[in-house]
Amino acid sequence: MARAPLHRVVVTGLGAVTPLALNFEASWEALLAGACGVGPVTKIEGIERFPCQVAAELKDFHPSDYLDPKEVRRNDPFTHYAVAAARMARDDGAVDLDRCDRSRVGVLIGSGVGGLQTIESQSKVLHSGNPRMVSPFTIPALISDMAGGVVAIDLGVHGPNFAAVSACTTGAHAIGEAYHFLQLGKADIIFSGGTEGGINAFGFAAFCAMRAMATGFNDDPVRASRPFDSRRNGFVMGEGAGVLVLETLENALLRNARIYCELAAYAAGCDANHITAPDLSGERLATVLRNALEEAEIAPEEVDYVSAHGTSTPYNDLCETNAYKLVFGKRAKELTISSIKGATGHMLGAAGAVEAAVCAKAIATGKIPPTINYEFPDPACDLDYTANKMREKKVHVALSDNLGFGGHNVALILRKFVP
What we know:
- The chain is 32% helix and 17% strand.
- By secondary structure, the protein is of the alpha/beta class.
- Strand 13 and strand 14 form a beta hairpin.
- Helix 3 crosses helix 6 and helix 7 packs across helix 13.
């Protein structure tokens, strides 16, 4: 029996809470202006004990704006952020759920580290001496799938629902898996992305112990995250959430939705090299990029913009640069590349989702956000990283890639929608 044709998938709504602003549109404008959301840590008591004392925190976020006080107490911040971003994506996409078949509306939202704040706070309760005082909501609050579960309850939707968990590729993996569900016609609409709320003493101590975080910038936090710059020495932790409304083209046309772009391909792979360090040759990442281009039937020379993972770590930025050279050859020098992590910090499991939203917006507006804090070129990272100033450019095809601890590599390709 012949296989049914795959459905085209489009992006129709964008929602985010980021260290730059508490909605996606304001975050986008801040990115274009070269703003920075990194500052001194305010959420950790005794931060002066830590070698890294800077982070990209959400500012003035009030979860009670989205959840009733009881639900706020029962859930971890990563879930609060997801609910906020999902509601914004719903509103941006003008999704009237009362006119949808709710059994065909899904939620795929992941978190790289889940409820770290809950783990820390309830561990303190446990070690205070009375295990019976540990909250009965501890496990539901900390497990990574709970963000998607609470969003589904909040929206009242019953379609496919699970969490991708793959460290810093989580948001991109979630979008890719939602894409597959929609391609196969197993849902009409999926709210998909990533969320993270890991800025606490436990998370900070663990990352500092790995020597993964930026140091030497405690007195100058806005310059701490500097992707591809020769003086980069670690990532800056961020927090927040990004959620996209993905839907089949048929469904989008049926409801006369505004279409930002088409999601054209998703590819994933693994370095199988080291638990935290990427393969510096870039070969495994290059394979994933080529697979995505092949699936989308797009030639390398057709790519207009690359949203890099660009973590501001020595190994990641070199790995990506080498991968781009392998895939694009001599044209790599002509690529327009940028990393938004100089502005947002590294939002861990939320990063790929927010960066995919940035690609969608770049296609829709013809504007590319800069890589801020690019001051001292690295001879080994010698491509065009859109240094410090936004660029106007028609973007027909955007590629977004992400790398994660465990060797995970993911690529998404988004392109201008053509009926």
